[in-house]
């Protein structure tokens, strides 16, 4: 049989099977399975499930056939109680390439795989564990482990770029047709060597997506990134990730300090990798996540001059013990873009700025306009810095209904507002006009030493918040009702 021919299937089936001991000349049944995932992808029809039996498959899976709304998705899944491993060991990476590659396809589900070891040591080649690109919709990536995806190229001369990899990447590369209604849920991404790229990225013409309940840890760059303005989509009007939700994820041990793309000396002191980063995205919700022991907990910014991240609602997250700062906003220097019309609400921030570099709990960077910071708990670390805002041009930002506390010297509790430093809560309030309804008090966490930031029954944060309507969301960090009896707590816990 020619390698380009597809073996005939005796009759339509709802399920097909792949086994390391099978043959693509077989019928694809449980008793007579196929050998390669690619053969299954070339045969499967809407509504089919492809069960992959336990074993190691040193193969790529390139999916171009779609399921349908009427017939159902095409599903690729590990066989129940068995582990199917897609292993990239020995496979060559050419260009931007996924071990699982979904191109211009819709109604696709990929779930339950161990995806590993796609690596290169060559510059300008980009290995990806799971790669969704082109245009498509109703795609689900669920309960996979993605790890040991790596680019280990050595930076050339003064150029630190060209060393890139992703764990999971969604690139909307067409316009006006987009990638939309994508769910990435329950996956674990770890031990990724990413260079100047990200663990889980959504970029370009992508809308109406959900990134939920993933575990992302121990990688050398950003955990989750929502990106716009990088010329991924051919029409600039569509080149912006939008209308998505990032919820219920746990992200930790994300740092660029051992990443050559951030400097030649290792470890360096870049501290630039965020647990969750919005770089040019818009109209999206970041809620109910835990982000801790990263360089930056959550950042909403724009790296592109004249371009804005806007309409981002960061709410009901727990952000603690990150090195540089808890939540950052705005361009990281004067040559970057803006953060506008966004909200930082009902978050619990605890002892971030562990470097004691002054980033504090919330860092307000360049070009921040018309944002709201409200209903948060900010518990300072050793630096005693709560909010750091050095730019006098930042305008239209409101800060109120927050709770502040410093376990150390409270008289040295520090706020920097429009490049003026204020020591003590009373001085800060009276001289800035901020936080008229805020309080300075011990929030009464149950056990912060054990990372339990729930509130004791006696907490002054209970029912001390302001109701901002639908912008609060309906759930707190635990999935419980956010508003009870018309009142709302400060912080992530209701």
List the helices and strands and how they pair.
Blueprint: E1 15-18, H1 37-43, E2 49-52, E3 55-57, E4 61-63, E5 74-78, E6 84-87, E7 96-103, E8 108-111, E9 113-116, E10 119-120, E11 126-134, E12 136-142, E13 145-147, E14 150-151, E15 166-172, E16 179-185, E17 188-190, E18 200-204, E19 206-212, E20 215-219, E21 224-227, E22 245-247, E23 250-254, E24 274-279, E25 282-287, E26 290-292, E27 296-301, E28 308-315, E29 318-320, E30 325-329, E31 338-340, E32 343-345, E33 348-350, E34 362-364, E35 368-369, E36 372-374, E37 377-380, E38 385-389, E39 398-400, E40 403-406, E41 414-417, E42 420-423, H2 425-432, E43 439-440, E44 445-447, E45 452-455
Parallel strand pairs: 1-2, 2-5, 3-6, 4-7, 5-8, 6-9, 7-11, 8-12, 9-13, 10-14, 11-15, 12-16, 13-17, 15-18, 16-19, 17-20, 18-21, 19-22, 20-23, 21-24, 22-25, 23-26, 24-27, 25-28, 26-29, 27-30, 28-31, 28-32, 29-33, 30-34, 31-35, 32-36, 33-37, 34-38, 36-39, 37-40, 38-41, 40-43
Antiparallel strand pairs: 41-42, 44-45
**Helical stretch tally:** 2
Structural class: mainly beta
Question: What percent of the residues sit in helical stretches (DSSP H or I)?
Answer: under 10%
Give the overall shape, derived from the CA principal axes: elongated
Q: What does the average pLDDT come to? A: 94
The CATH architecture comes to 3 Solenoid
List the domain count as a whole number.
Answer: 1
CATH fold field value: Pectate Lyase C-like
Q: How many DSSP E strands? A: 45
CATH class: Mainly Beta
Biggest beta sheet attributes:
15 strands, parallel
| Radius of gyration, CA atoms, in whole angstroms | 24 Å
State the end-to-end distance.
64 Å
Strand proportion: 35-45%
Uncertain segments: 1-11
């Amino acid at each position: 049989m020619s390698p380009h021919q597809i073996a005939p299937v005796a009759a339509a089936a709802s399920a097909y099977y792949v086994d390391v001991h099978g043959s693509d000349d077989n019928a694809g049944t449980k008793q007579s399975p196929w050998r390669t995932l690619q053969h299954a992808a070339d045969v499967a029809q809407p509504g089919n499930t492809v069960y992959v039996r336990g074993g190691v498959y040193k193969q790529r899976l390139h999916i171009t056939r779609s399921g349908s709304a009427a017939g159902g998705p095409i599903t690729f899944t590990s066989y129940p109680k068995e582990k199917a491993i897609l292993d990239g060991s020995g496979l060559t990476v050419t260009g931007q390439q996924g071990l699982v590659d979904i191109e211009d396809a819709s109604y696709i589900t990929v779930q339950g795989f161990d995806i590993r070891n796609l690596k290169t040591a060559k510059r300008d080649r980009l290995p990806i564990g799971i790669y969704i690109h082109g245009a498509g919709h109703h795609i689900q990536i669920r309960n996979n482990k993605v790890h040991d995806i790596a680019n280990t190229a050595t930076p050339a001369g003064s150029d630190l770029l060209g060393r890139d990899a992703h764990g999971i990447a969604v690139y909307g590369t067409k316009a006006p047709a987009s990638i939309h209604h994508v769910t990435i849920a329950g996956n674990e991404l770890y031990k990724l060597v990413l260079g100047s790229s990200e663990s889980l990225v959504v970029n370009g013409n992508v809308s109406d997506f959900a990134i939920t309940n993933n575990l992302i840890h121990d990688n050398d760059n950003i955990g989750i990134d929502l990106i716009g303005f990088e010329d991924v989509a051919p029409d600039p009007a569509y080149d912006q990730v939008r209308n998505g939700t990032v919820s219920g994820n746990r992200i930790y041990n994300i740092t660029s300090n051992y990443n050559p793309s951030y400097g030649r000396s290792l470890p360096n002191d870049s501290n630039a990798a965020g647990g969750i980063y919005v770089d040019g995205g818009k109209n999206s919700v970041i809620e109910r996540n835990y982000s801790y022991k990263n360089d930056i907990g959550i950042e909403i910014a724009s790296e592109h001059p004249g371009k804005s991240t806007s309409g981002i609602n960061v709410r009901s997250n727990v952000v603690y013990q990150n090195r540089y700062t808890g939540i950052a906003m705005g361009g990281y220097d004067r040559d970057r873009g803006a953060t506008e019309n966004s909200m930082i609400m009902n978050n619990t921030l605890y002892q971030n700025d562990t470097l004691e570099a002054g980033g504090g709990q919330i860092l307000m960077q360049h070009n921040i306009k018309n944002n709201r910071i409200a209903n948060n708990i900010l518990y300072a670390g050793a630096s005693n810095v709560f909010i750091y805002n050095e730019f006098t041009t930042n305008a239209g930002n409101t800060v109120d209904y927050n709770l502040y506390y410093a376990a150390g010297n409270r008289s040295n509790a520090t706020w920097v507002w429009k490049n003026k430093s204020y020591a003590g809560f009373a001085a800060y309030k009276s001289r800035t006009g901020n936080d008229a309804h805020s309080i300075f008090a011990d929030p009464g966490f149950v056990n912060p030493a054990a990372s339990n930031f729930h509130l004791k029954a006696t907490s002054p944060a209970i029912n001390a918040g302001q109701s901002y309507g639908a912008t609060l969301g309906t759930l707190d960090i635990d999935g419980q009702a956010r508003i009870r009896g018309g009142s709302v707590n400060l912080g992530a816990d209701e």
